[in-house]
Amino acid sequence: MSRSVPKSSRRGLRLASALVAAGLALSFAPPALADDSGSDLLVLTDGQAETLESHAQVDPYAAADGKSVTPDGAGREDTAASGSGSRLDEDTGTDAGTVSVNAKSNLEGVRGIAATSPVGGTSGDYFTLHSLGTVARSAPDGKQLWRRDNASLYADWKVTPTRPWQTERYPARIAMGYNAVSPFSPMSDQGYATGDLTGDGMDDVVFSASVGISPYRPFTSPGSSLANGTFVTVLDGKTGKTLWTKLYAYAFSVKLVGKTLLIGDSPYYNLNSDKAATATLTGIRFSYADGALAPASTWTYDAGVRDRTTWGALEDVGDGLVAASWSKRKTTATAGAARTLLLDTKDGSVKWQTDSSLYTRQLHLDASRGRLVALEQADPTDGVKYELASYAVSDGERSTLDTRVNALPLDVELGDLKGDRKPEYVVSESTLDENFYLNANTVRAVDGSDGSTELWSRTVKRDPANSHDSGGAWGLSVLDHKVVASYLDDASNDSAENRGASRLARLAVLDGSDGAVRWEQRGALASPLYAQPFKDGDGWHLRTVDEDQNLRTYGFGSGKQQRLLPLQGDIAYARSTDVNGDGKKDLVVGGQSRGVWAYDGPSLVAGKPKLLWKATLPGQIHGIENADTDGDGRKDELVIAADTAAAVLDAHTGRDLATIDGAGQYVHSATPADLDGDGRDEVVVPTDKVRAYRASGKTLWTYAAPAGSGDVVFGDVAVREGRVYAQYNSVNSFALDAPVVNGVALKAKDGSTLWTADPKMPADTDGKVRATVLVNGVFSAREILYADGHAVVYTWITEDDITPRTVVDIRDSRTGKPLSVTAAGGLYTLGDFFTGPEGLVLAGTASLRTYANDGSDYEIFTLPTLQNAGFVTGPGGRRLIAGGVEGGVYLWDPSVLKAAHNYPDHVARMSLMGTRNTFTSDLNGDGVDEIVALNFDVTGYDRSAGLIGGGYYLPDTAIHQVTVATIDAS
């Protein structure tokens, strides 16, 4: 039964605080004022407008800037900082001492929202731009032809940090996204463009990328006095080489009109800009020679204003003309204003200009009617409203087509819906509730002849369980008399499945005649902002990149998925095995997307990564294990936990040998082990039950919690000595009065119960078992010398007077008899267990606990915040502890485990802000382990936390990459 509020006050406050940290708790604001005209127009205060602006958006940088969710008191010993990104130069790999850690290869992953764009002059190639700093060109089949990542772009920009303690770079932010309230936010729907600037017949790509502005990281770059800003960069479409780049103060608008590159710069929004600099629009025509572009002619239109002024829209009008707009933000002393103008791109001369009191958000050409259609919006302190306005192309005469009150515009698109070759106007708008959150979204089609007569509308309401912003159609396009709408989906936005509405989306095709849904895809299946229509010999298709970094292609007519291409996003898991038969270990990695990649091990150590194969799996990767499923004595298969299924792959080729469906459950782990003694590994999958399968996918046995237990979830299992050790708890156990929590030892051959744990908590707790640790919570190894090497570890969650606690329960694996039961850290602090001559070691948040073989226990705390660890072999066979910390890898001498000295000095370290997980293996056969620095399984861990009724979400602003490093003698 669910707890009432009074009974759960202490735990409820902790969980509520986690939600507050995520910005998910309901907030209250004084009501907006109706205007004096009595029209019930919402008029916001400055504070209300600022708050609304902060969340009424699709944020392309949410992967880096998302708000954390952690419980209060997650670990009473966690006094170390979680990582600010501030590091001294010495952190990069050459610490004084006997050894050093030196990066040899970096495999940078993609991050953020992605947009694709066709490459003109090719047979269907496309560019992919990720908001957090990568650009690539691919062939129609998905083969990558070239790729530029942050490291290569920074090298071309020649950025040198000016702060010696902040040398590691953050990802560049390619201008993308849209804010429904304000044109003054650091987002842009015109941050990139394509066109042929070299004259080779193939499109090049130009983009603007913010560097050093957010987070603030000052630098120097040749040819500029700016300490940060936006690099406008042109890449050769054929090769990916940088053709031209220049640092501007705040250029969030770029456009190609013919051969002229237009750049809108708004220096007011860069604190490091020249205080006399005003908003300008620059037009550049280039000459091309020797593999580079050089400005051949340049003109500049000066808006003559600086304060609170930004560029709003650029639109190609034809005949070398461009329509442009800038807006000046309202203050307490001055009214808001905007100007729309028509310029000749040859010399920047102004043909006409027209002023408005509304901010211009978008401009679209309606050539059939000789007008520009403008989406214009009032400052919310003047009233929540927007207009569709018309500007005559001939002379700029402005007229209002339609006015919408108490609604925010998300997008507008023009296209032929009737088949009369004249466009209708399709608008996406959202309304507000009494707390100024978006509560519904409507896509409206209006007749283009008058711009106001509604033809049809489709409304999607906020998810009933959501009290914050609803989803909405943030991206529209019109194709073949139909509307393509890309929606952000707000379902489950307070859970790990869609934390802060950062993962789920809807892609819909609406009939142009009545708005009826032709088809819709919903889930982690599309982008909330971008869907690229393209045509080939099989007709029209839609290309989109979902938030898990899988590029998907859908049939435009049917909505059927036709292709799925995993991109290398965050990588959290790795294993090594000899893939190519050269006698040396290779590296297999996976994580956020549905992809698994195998790299040649020696090539990674040599700094020249060589991809051996890649494979596509049923879902996100939450674990990779080596296995021998065919009984040949070699562990040359891989067992992978893939979110919706477990998969068995041939390690040599990546070929799928078997897919074991998860029956709708979350497959967070899959453990290979020989259960029946036939020399072949089976696969154990814990979800709502523990299921054992043959490697072919045939069920061997199933264990369910005792009758009457209700809905339960099993954590990771351990298999040893003919037994399967498992633990489980009620789903959402922290919200229950009397959750079911227990552990079992099962006979590996048939799943029958050998003994039951029935745990008892230590005296310094409240005595109640609240949950289990689902990730790495069960462990067994011969080196644990309790019970003469017959020991197993279970972990439980209880509480004391202050906070939830993790309890380590060591038992005789043969009988289940408890041998040692001790509290060890807070909620979500368990990293992993490992063993050595010192005994059993628990690596937890900022701590190492050793359960020594002499029966003594030792505990030390670490700085920085440790998360996981293990023993490695260093130069000369030296034993070391390698730990994954918040933002890097640290090495310690094993003597620290029993020295009883907190915060021991490290032997060596390597700073990498995006690192949390680690893997170690000898990849080149020299007898010394390499360290593989990995990212964190943000979604997977959060989902596991959600199964006990909590949440754990820690995004970061770092570049995410797999780094292979050597341990070298100094």
Q: What's this entry about, in short?
A:
This protein is mainly beta and 970 residues long.
The tally of beta strands, per DSSP, is 73
Rounded Rg: 29 Å
Mean of residue pLDDT? 93
Return residue spans where pLDDT drops below 50 for at least 5 consecutive residues. Answer: 1-38, 72-96
Strand content: over 45%
Structural class: mainly beta
CATH architecture identity of the domain at 406-567: Beta Barrel
- Helical amount among residues, as a percent range? under 10%
How far apart the termini lie comes to 61 Å
What is the general shape? globular
At CATH level 3, the topology of the domain at 406-567 is Lipocalin
Pfam family, one: FG-GAP_3
Signal peptide: 1-34
Protein name: VCBS repeat-containing protein
Region (Disordered): 55-97
Keywords, separated by commas or semicolons:
disordered N terminus; 970 residues; Lipocalin; 5-stranded antiparallel sheet; mainly beta; single chain
How would you portray this structure in words?
This is VCBS repeat-containing protein. It is a single chain. The chain has 970 residues and is mainly beta. The chain is globular and about 90 Å long. It contains six helices and 73 strands. Strands 10, 12, 13, 15 and 16 form a five-stranded antiparallel β-sheet that branches. The chain is 5% helix and 45% strand. Among the domains are: 9-64, no CATH class; 406-567, Lipocalin (Beta Barrel); 705-827, no CATH class.
